[in-house]
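Q: How would the structure tokens look for this protein?
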Amino acid sequence: MFSGYISDCGYLKEIKKTAQGVRFCITSTYERLERGESIAVDGACLTVTDILQDSFFCDLSPETLACTRAGRLVEGDRVNLERSICLNDRLNGHLVTGHVDQTCLLKKKNVLSEYTQLSFSGVHLEAFAFIVPKGSVAINGVSLTLNNVEKDVFDIMLIPETLAKTNLSELEAGDYVNVEFDYFAKLVAKQTKLYLGLS
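A: Here is the predicted structure in token form.
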């Protein structure tokens, strides 16, 4: 479990194809990493398989490659990183599982002095119930607040701190991002459909 608070940005040092998936080597400033621990990489929960002094390795399955933007990344790209939270940690964002729901397309980027507004499109029909104004969403693992929501398009506003500490500042129109909708919104929608006999 994560909170959407990015604690490091690493670079893809190496991308190596495996028999059925891909292995990433990612630079990091994290200390005392352990094999088997979970790290959210651009919002996707991955397992640390090997550790070097300044980097770590993780394996991506075909399912992860199909559901995230990982297959679009190239060596040298910067990725957002977050270690899993402890139960006594501050919840700086919102509860994020690290299970990416889908990718969305950055439709428009509007720089407003020190702030940046991003508009995303391509929300799947079944996910409409999960996006509400002032609700929560995780974009590339970053906990953010939904602003305007219209049909399959939603807007977020990035403050200078987020722009400085994450890779969201590097996004341009036409880029894809990992999106995880609020877990509690998904839970309520699922239970409501079951109660009404719609699922």
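Helices lie at 62-67, 160-165, 183-195.

The mean pLDDT is 94.

Upvote if useful.
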